Amino acid sequence: MDRRTSLQWVLAASTAWPLLDREFARAGQVVEAVGYGTDPNLKRVFHPGELWPLILAPDRRRLAGILSDLILPADERSPAASAVGVVDFIDEWVSAPYPLHQQDRAIVQEGFAWLDAEAGRRQGRGFSDLEVADQLAICDRLCDRSRAAPELDAAARFFARYRDLTAGGFYSSPAGRKDLDYIGNVPLARFEGPPATLLKALGLS
Fold first, then answer.
1. What H or E segment, with its residue span, contains residue 184?
2. Nearest to 81 by CA among 17, 9, 160, 164
3. Which of 65, 83, 146, 156 is the most exposed place for a label (fewest CB within 10 A)?
4. Cα(160)–Cα(175) distance, rounded to whole angstroms?
5. Three-state DSSP class for residue 77
6. Do 128 and 66 form a contact (C-beta atoms < 8 A)?
7. What sign results for the dihedral spanned by CA atoms 66, 67, 69, 73?
8. What is the pLDDT of residues 179-196, one digit of tens each?
9. How do residues 6-20 score in pLDDT, each as one tens digit?
10. Chain Cα centroid distance, residue 187
């Protein structure tokens, strides 16, 4: 089973999961949203940064895109995660002023810092500037928290959360829904009822 298929299964198994810092201020301080604000106008399209300030600096957005593409690279079915707006999704998520999002903000920021520190220790460069093979070598130590070394537990927890955010952002995009063969929210000229094979499997035929 390839990486993308594995993520599809993980996402399908977690349908009950409630799906689900763009720039720093000039002085290096994070721009914080104050309060929750009012309910958005659901009749219009909001662009990233309109509801609350985005906090990921350009170098962090670059790292976010590289890491999301290592998790969900392009294949013959679909584009890479960064090509469908996953970086915007993650930036919006970790910038939101809600408690869960703020917890994820700390996890993601600390995880990015760890990746750069580990890359520097190994190669003397930031994670984003490593060769893909070297980036994968670092990620391979984190991708299974149950097998990660005890000293890597926090980094592995970050990787697991970032993988969930990447999958959530990708598979809620049009390209991701197409990759899943999801056909919801599509008008039908007629409805023939559930397939006979499904009814039989459920013991309802």
1. none
2. 164
3. 146
4. 22
5. coil
6. yes
7. positive
8. 888 878 778 888 888 889
9. 555 545 444 434 444
10. 29
